């Protein structure tokens, strides 16, 4: 295909870039500052260096317009809270005393003051700090950080575009402040917030911004008519300002739907729209509203949140279609590159041929530049890049890694019956009770026990070759012995081996499955200074040999009580990895499920009577739009059933989830057909138990009675009270007693005390039945 040169030169741009630096310099500087080892000035200097080097990298690669304001010491939503002066009352003194320390106090809390709540940024694994607003909130503009960063970039000679969280999204992401009625809607504060944005826009214009980008990803979610009217008003008012830069309103992560006509008609100069697969409907929808005559369209054609190379020819053809729909078309990634690692060039352990299938932030930047050039100057000028891209795509499509005939045949042969247990739940319980012989209100834990420094050192020693495998395994066995003997002494009923051998609940399995890749430097920000290295589900997935059986068997050999087998479920494996984009996710989930099914079968054959398959991410990857949810929940629950459906009726399947809100997926939880579920509940005071009950959830459940996110030791009486309130919702025959989640981040002292209290509480309440 050849594209004719476009009339206006297409610009290459991005909305944001990874913040951490090549060697996670930012993490080190910030954590050093917290520990008092790095001064505030040194921290600021490191930050300025990182920004400068990011802009240089982008400009050298050919990016025409670099973003500013995408950088952050912790989180860009928290930065927006500072920009609009919405500092919670409890943090005001700290912020006034010292802006930087006050900022970190809002992010992390202090001994006396709780931090802002943290939650997921849309359906990504990035967490933002939730603004707390109320009827008394007074907004005041503080554009200093935005202005300073813009000036920095301009002084370095860059064409720069400040990127701000838009006012509608900011309010829609907020929650009522503590003490404010739960039905308070932050969006009602829009009229108070807009003048503050007007001030910031005036300051940015004065500082030299030609364009300012306002991010409104909240508009890709289902929105009420009132919310759309608010969005319309926001951009009518901001558009009407005279003292402002040109406005680019950006959306990403899904299709705009009803919000598209609202934004298309708004008196702003440009829109940035996601045109990747998951938002493909945007193209037709944009054509249907007559395009964006007279406006700039920034086309997000390179996936900003996955790590696969772009299909350049397909993107060029999409861009060609878009040329007819706007005054000027520029090229970008679909969203900020914050969600992908920095550079594939740092990876040494991935085969060179496979590495060529991958594009991290730096490679995506090059793709964007290539596409902009092809669009402007014609495809002939990027012939070499197109040919290389074609050959990389071909190699990926035809590799034995992505096409394993055995896996494909097995996946294709899956039948409805494979995903169904041989007896329905109601008929399985008697067999399980007889086999397990547990008391009423049985006690258990979620899987992991404290990951001591000793275990982590042993793992590092093994990696560095300081100890051999046998030495490492001795360490793990010693750990398992300790965990088992503690649980026996404490009087727990269903034991666990403690997961000492696992670095991470997803990575541990990914490392053992064929078709998965691990990176050495593929760090992605999860929140603040916490970075994760998600595995890459690159090919057809299979399990060459058992992954957990020997540890569970060893643990079981030490005790007469049942030891739970412990696996990570297929949905969570996908949610916390980069997943291949060349086949539906459902297909990949099925492959992972079959690999887990083999593991479940082997555990059962080794005598394991209780097997837990964790799915903490089931709720979290729920699609943003309600219309897409049934399909997702359909394949997600099928994958879980496929991994667990092959066991005998008297083998008890547990699952675990840790998210506060389950109300909207109770049906899906039931569809998992697990026998027992443990859930996070201690903070919400058994709210979860009431929710399950009100939806008629018929199975056994263990709403957590011990909040493991805090070092606080709950007293036995407190846990007993929670149990009593749990009993009001769930009958004693179906109520389990357990903590909220795994204990790996806790210390041994508090773990011991808390679990002893938990057993005491269970015994006390049993006595009352
Ligand atoms: N079994 C895991 C553990 O105990 C579950 C972790 C989780 O739910 N995130 O650590
Ligand atoms: Zn959990």
Automatic annotation (TrEMBL):
Binding-site residues for L-homocysteine, renumbered to this chain: 446-448, 499, 614
Stated name of the protein: 5-methyltetrahydropteroyltriglutamate--homocysteine methyltransferase
Entry-linked Pfam families: Meth_synt_1, Meth_synt_2
Family designation: Belongs to the vitamin-B12 independent methionine synthase family.
UniProt pathway annotation: Amino-acid biosynthesis; L-methionine biosynthesis via de novo pathway; L-methionine from L-homocysteine (MetE route): step 1/1
Gene3D superfamilies for the chain: 3.20.20.210
Catalysed transformations (reactions): 5-methyltetrahydropteroyltri-L-glutamate + L-homocysteine = tetrahydropteroyltri-L-glutamate + L-methionine
Residue sites binding L-methionine per the record: 446-448, 499, 614
Record InterPro entries: Cbl-indep_Met_Synth_N, Cobalamin-indep_Met_synthase, Met_Synth_C/arc, UROD/MetE-like_sf
Active site: 709 (proton donor)
Domain Cobalamin-independent methionine synthase MetE C-terminal/archaeal: 441-763
Ranges of residues in domain Cobalamin-independent methionine synthase MetE N-terminal: 13-323
GO biological process, one term: methylation
Function: Catalyzes the transfer of a methyl group from 5-methyltetrahydrofolate to homocysteine resulting in methionine formation.
Signal peptide: none
């Amino acid at each position: 295909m050849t594209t004719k040169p476009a009339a206006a030169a297409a610009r290459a741009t991005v909305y944001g870039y990874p913040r951490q630096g090549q060697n996670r310099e930012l993490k080190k500087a910030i954590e050093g500052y917290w520990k008092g080892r790095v001064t505030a000035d040194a921290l600021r200097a490191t930050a300025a260096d990182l920004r400068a080097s990011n802009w240089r990298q982008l400009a050298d690669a050919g990016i025409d317009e670099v973003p500013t304001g995408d950088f952050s010491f912790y989180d860009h939503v928290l930065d927006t809270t500072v920009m609009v002066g919405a500092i919670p009352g409890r943090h005001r003194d700290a912020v006034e005393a010292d802006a930087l320390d006050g900022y970190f106090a809002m992010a992390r809390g202090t001994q006396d003051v709780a931090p802002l709540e943290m939650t997921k940024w849309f359906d990504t694994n990035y967490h933002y700090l939730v603004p707390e607003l109320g009827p008394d909130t007074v907004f005041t503009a503080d554009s200093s950080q935005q202005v300073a960063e813009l000036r920095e970039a301009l002084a370095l000679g860059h064409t720069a575009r400040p990127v701000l969280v838009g006012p509608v999204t900011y309010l829609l992401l907020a929650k009522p402040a503590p003490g404010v009625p739960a039905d308070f809607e932050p969006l009602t504060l829009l009229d108070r917030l807009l003048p503050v944005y007007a001030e910031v826009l005036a300051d940015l214009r004065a500082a030299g911004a030609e364009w300012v980008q306002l991010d409104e990803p909240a508009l890709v979610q289902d929105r009420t008519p009132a919310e759309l009217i608010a969005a319309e008003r926001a951009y009518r008012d901001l558009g009407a300002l005279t003292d402002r830069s040109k406005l680019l309103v950006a959306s990403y992560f899904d299709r705009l739907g009803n919000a598209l006509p609202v934004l298309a008609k708004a008196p702003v100069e440009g829109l940035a729209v996601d045109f990747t697969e998951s938002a493909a409907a945007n193209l037709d929808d944009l054509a249907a509203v007559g395009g964006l005559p007279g406006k700039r369209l920034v086309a997000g054609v390179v996936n900003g949140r996955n790590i696969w190379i772009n299909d350049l020819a397909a993107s060029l053809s999409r861009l060609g279609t878009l040329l007819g729909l706007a005054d000027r078309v520029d090229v970008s990634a679909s969203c900020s590159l914050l969600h992908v690692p920095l550079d594939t060039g740092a990876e040494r352990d991935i085969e060179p041929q496979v590495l060529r299938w991958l594009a991290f932030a730096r490679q995506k930047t090059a793709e964007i530049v290539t596409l902009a050039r092809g669009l402007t100057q014609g495809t002939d000028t990027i012939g070499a890049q197109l040919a290389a891209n074609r050959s990389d795509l071909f190699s990926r499509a035809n590799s034995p890694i992505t096409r394993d005939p055995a896996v494909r045949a097995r996946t294709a042969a899956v039948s409805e019956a494979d995903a169904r247990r041989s007896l329905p739940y109601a008929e399985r319980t008697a067999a399980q009770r007889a086999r397990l012989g547990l008391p009423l209100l049985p006690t258990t834990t979620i899987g992991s026990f404290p990951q001591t420094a000793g275990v982590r050192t042993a793992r590092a020693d093994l990696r560095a070759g300081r100890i051999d495998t046998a030495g490492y395994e001795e360490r793990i066995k010693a750990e398992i012995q300790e965990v088992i003997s503690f649980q026996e002494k404490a009087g727990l009923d269903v034991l666990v081996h403690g997961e000492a051998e696992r670095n991470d609940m997803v990575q541990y399995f990914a490392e053992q499955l064929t078709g998965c890749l691990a990176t050495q430097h593929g760090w992605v920000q999860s929140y603040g200074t916490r970075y994760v290295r998600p595995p890459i589900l690159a090919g057809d997935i299979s399990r060459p040999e058992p992954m957990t059986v020997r540890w569970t068997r060893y643990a079981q050999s030490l005790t007469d009580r049942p030891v739970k087998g412990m696996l990570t479920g297929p949905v969570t494996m996908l949610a916390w990895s980069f997943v291949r984009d060349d086949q539906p996710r459902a297909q990949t989930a099925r492959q992972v499920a079959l690999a887990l099914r083999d593991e479940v079968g082997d555990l059962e054959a080794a005598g394991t009577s209780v097997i837990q398959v964790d799915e903490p991410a089931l709720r979290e990857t729920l699609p943003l739009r309600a219309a897409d949810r049934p399909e997702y929940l359909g394949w997600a629950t099928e994958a879980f059933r496929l991994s667990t459906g092959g066991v005998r009726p008297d083998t008890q399947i547990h699952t675990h989830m840790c998210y506060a809100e389950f109300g909207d997926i109770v049906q899906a939880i039931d569809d998992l057909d697990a026998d027992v579920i443990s859930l996070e509940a201690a903070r919400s005071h058994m709210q979860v138990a009431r929710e399950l009950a009100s939806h008629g959830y018929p199975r056994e459940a263990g709403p957590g009675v011990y909040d493991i996110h805090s070092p606080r030791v709950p007293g036995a009486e407190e846990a007993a009270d929670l149990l009593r309130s749990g009993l009001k919702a769930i009958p004693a025959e179906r109520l389990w007693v357990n903590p909220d989640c795994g204990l790996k981040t806790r210390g041994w002292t508090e773990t011991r005390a808390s679990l002893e209290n938990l057993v005491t509480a269970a015994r006390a309440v049993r006595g009352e039945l």
